[in-house]
């Protein structure tokens, strides 16, 4: 194991489930892979998601950890607030970025907005 921890943004999840060899290669030696509950919601809310895609995603969820947004997780909520204010991110992006920070994970995304979060390690694929 490489000791690498990765949190996948929604666009990375979509690419991975479509078979992106670059992402498969990146993640093959990961110690931990997670997603934010926001990415789970975004993926399942796609208007054109097929039943096959839904089943594939459910299998994917069995292999990763979902970072939930709980009212009593004060440190995560405070991180989200500070990230949103400091970096002027949309709320879903602030939640994803903060989830990666809390998990001490590298954020894997194709969204260039995250590079402005200076205390976050980002891999743009």
Features:
single chain; 125 residues; alpha/beta
* Average pLDDT taken over every residue: 95
Share of residues in helices? 40-55%
**Order of SSEs:** EHHEHHEHHEE
What percentage of amino acids are in beta strands? 15-25%
Number of strands: 5
Q: Low-confidence runs (pLDDT<50, min 5 residues)?
A: none
Distance between the termini: 21 Å
Number of helices: 6
Widest β-sheet, arrangement of strands: 3-2-1-4-5
The profile of the biggest β sheet is: 5 strands, parallel
Please tell me how large the radius of gyration is: 14 Å
The helix/strand class is alpha/beta
Inertia-based shape: globular
Describe this structure in words.
- There is one protein chain.
- The protein is 48% helix and 15% strand.
- The protein is built from 6 helices and 5 strands; from the N terminus they run βααβααβααββ.
- It has helices at residues 10-17, 21-27, 37-44, 51-61, 74-87, 91-102; strands at residues 5-8, 32-36, 65-67, 106-109, 122-124.
- The protein has a 5-stranded parallel β-sheet.
- The protein is globular.
SSE diagram, text form:
Layout: E1 5-8, H1 10-17, H2 21-27, E2 32-36, H3 37-44, H4 51-61, E3 65-67, H5 74-87, H6 91-102, E4 106-109, E5 122-124
Parallel strand pairs: 1-2, 1-4, 2-3, 4-5
